[in-house]
Amino acid sequence: MQIQKEAGWRSFRRRFGRAATALGLLTAVACTSGRTPASVAGAGLGQAKPDDVTVATWNMCGVQQWSCERTGTPKDKFQQLRDLIGDSGVRVLLLQEVCSEDLSSSALRLGPEWQSVFEPYAEVDPAGTRSAVDCTGQGRGRAGFALLAASRLTDVEVIPTEQPTVGLHRGILCARVPAQGLRVCNAHLSLRESDDEHPDWDFRDDQLGSLFAAASTDPSTVVGGDFNSPPPVGRANTSAWIWPSEAYTTYRECDQKGESRKGRPTQTNGSKIDYLFTALPRTGCEVVDTKASDHRPLVMRVSRPAPTSAAPEVSTSR
Q1: What angle do CA 261, 40, 288 make, to 5 degrees?
Q2: Beta strands in the chain (DSSP E)
Q3: Is position 123 within any domain?
Q4: I need a labelling partner for 157 at 20 to 30 A (CA). Which of 147, 273, 313, 314 fits?
Q5: Which domain holds residue 223?
Q6: Residue 118's CATH number
Q7: Measured CA distances, 108 to 92, 101, 206, 318 (Å)
Q8: Where is pLDDT greater, at 7 or 57?
Q9: Is residue 318 part of a domain?
Q10: Looking at residue 48, what is its pLDDT?
Q11: What distances in angstroms separate CA 43 from CA 1, 224, 301, one per listed residue?
């Protein structure tokens, strides 16, 4: 469903975001100084403890027509998934730019315990008609983003977000992983100038707001994905205003040490645009080199939350 633009502060900020950043940045600084940080991530994953669980986010660059022709074959990308599982102990993956049939094939090859949910991207034309984005290459299905886990995924939901009026719709996909005691949300944010009708509009602030609002409903949530945005550091960063203050305060990023928000590069061009955030204690963080994408997988280990006496989960099939 197309979400209509709002008047007021959101519209003002979308059109004049760079000029409206000062108040937001001052507020973020004030909030940061008043919070108690979660445990600090180390340089790597280190030794796992029995109650640890490992989550990864990876833009697979599997949609060949999106400048991914030279980033490896589907076989190369599957091998990277298997290495993340075998070498880094990953049990839950947040994937972007994946082809639906590649995902199904990977889950099948990994074993019967591996389950996935997939949400397709959509192209929206000036008349509001939505069209699927097909992956090039025979039998590879549609392009989209997904969750892949070594156990059952339940309570699957697509979080409503503001999207371009004309252009590519990405989004946010959440699910619960009962065996790991986690809820995870995978976000692929819009690029700036992604609205063909309003190229000066920026949707990332609203999308990040929706993502962290979704995280706030459950303290066991891990959120992440490809945010198409640098971290809020540096005087030259004109998009720092998009970040909600709770991103680095209430929640902590995989690679965040103390109050530093920089993080290691996750893209082969030297930038960081891939993230994992949680309010759970972090026990390790790793950026994994790969030749199978223009993004490096980001891997975070967290302490599994203590079990609760919550009501039984209701499975949602997709």
Answers
A1: 70
A2: 52-59, 92-99, 115-120, 122-124, 130-132, 143-149, 154-159, 167-169, 171-177, 182-188, 221-226, 252-253, 274-278, 282-287, 298-303
A3: yes
A4: 273
A5: 9-303
A6: 3.60.10.10
A7: 15, 11, 36, 17
A8: 57
A9: no
A10: 78
A11: 42, 19, 12
